[in-house]
Design a protein that fits this description.
Length: 324
């Protein structure tokens, strides 16, 4: 019997998930939630549902949560209560109370359905290489780390007015801490548990938006070593760069210039600049494959599981709270 999948969003990320879903499961039966009754041609053929409640009555086997950020928590909560597998876009929550509800629902669930959270950078080969090097002690004792990401919000969706997007509206889940949660997830995935020491954020850029457009947090790991995370909607030239300083050298992963280098006492060694190691677009197909495998094999361990996403959400909210 064909897999029935409900998709809760109609934007670019929903389109991307549907494209990969159909590539890997050509016989999938698709339902799309659309309050307007309209969908992009790329979703066709599909059943159009007027709201999420009607979508659940459509009896899906699984759900792709790709709506605006402020709706993710309620949609995931319903799926957890019903035991429905999900591919849930990040961020899972934008409020502390919602995180508590999701944790309680997860603990109360009779069965643990496959829930993969859309932290697709975990599937990027170069970052898997970074994680392996850090865990293997290639840098010796790590004394500090810095993860930064930034891009002018107007560059994100050039065809749209940036001030009219959900990113510009905190009521819809906009703001750099929520939008750029990938770097918060990467900090945890690469460095282990972290706590917030302090943060500064706010609206400092040129756009007249209500959401915070910059946030810099000082974190510490279990050994009290500093980790900084810098996020912005302002950088004219996009930046996504991770730096790890250790006793044996400094590891620099620059996702925009596409190179991973190790600066040591005797010089600079290029670890990789292979295009396939930096191909972010390929991570979405790997992510979909991971989720579909878990649907077929419940014992399969997901690369971006719900438990990890809860830890990321907790740190994200702590960062946000530290700056308010």
């Amino acid at each position: 019997m064909a897999l029935r999948v409900l998709v809760t969003g109609r934007g670019s990320i929903a389109m991307r998930h549907v494209r990969h879903l159909r590539q890997q499961r050509p016989d999938v039966v698709l339902g799309v939630v659309s309050g307007t009754g309209q969908v992009d041609a790329s979703f066709e053929p599909c059943d159009i549902l007027p709201d999420f409640a009607q979508g659940l009555r459509w009896k899906p086997d699984a759900v792709v949560i790709a709506s605006v950020s402020s709706r993710h928590a309620n949609e995931l909560l319903a799926c957890l209560d019903l035991g429905l597998p999900c591919l849930a876009e990040k961020p899972l929550v934008t409020q502390r109370a919602a995180l508590a509800q999701l944790l309680a629902a997860r603990d109360a669930a009779r069965t643990q359905a496959a829930v993969l959270v859309g932290c697709n950078l975990r599937y990027l080969p170069v970052l898997a290489r970074v994680r392996s090097m850090l865990r293997d002690g290639a840098l010796g004792i790590i004394v500090r780390a810095h993860l930064e990401v930034g891009q002018a919000l107007a560059q994100w969706r050039p065809a749209r007015d940036a001030t009219a997007t959900y990113s510009a509206d905190p009521e819809l889940g906009g703001g750099v801490v929520f939008d750029l949660v990938h770097e918060i997830d990467m900090a945890l995935w690469l460095l282990g548990p972290l706590t917030v020491c302090g943060a500064i954020g706010g609206r400092h850029g040129p756009l007249t938006i209500r959401s915070d457009d910059v946030h810099v947090a000082l974190l510490q790991d279990s050994n009290c070593r500093p980790v900084t995370v810098s996020l912005d909607y302002v950088s004219c030239r996009p930046v996504r760069r991770y730096v790890f300083v250790g006793a044996n050298g400094t590891l620099i992963c620059d996702l925009m210039s596409r190179q991973l280098v190790l600066e040591g006492r005797t010089g600079c060694e290029v670890i990789t600049f292979a295009p396939e190691d930096f191909d972010v677009s390929a991570t979405y197909g790997l992510q979909m494959s991971d989720w579909l495998r878990a649907l077929d094999m419940p014992a399969h361990g997901l690369t971006s599981p719900l438990a990890d996403a809860f830890a990321t959400a907790d740190l994200m909210l702590s960062m946000k709270e530290a700056a308010t």
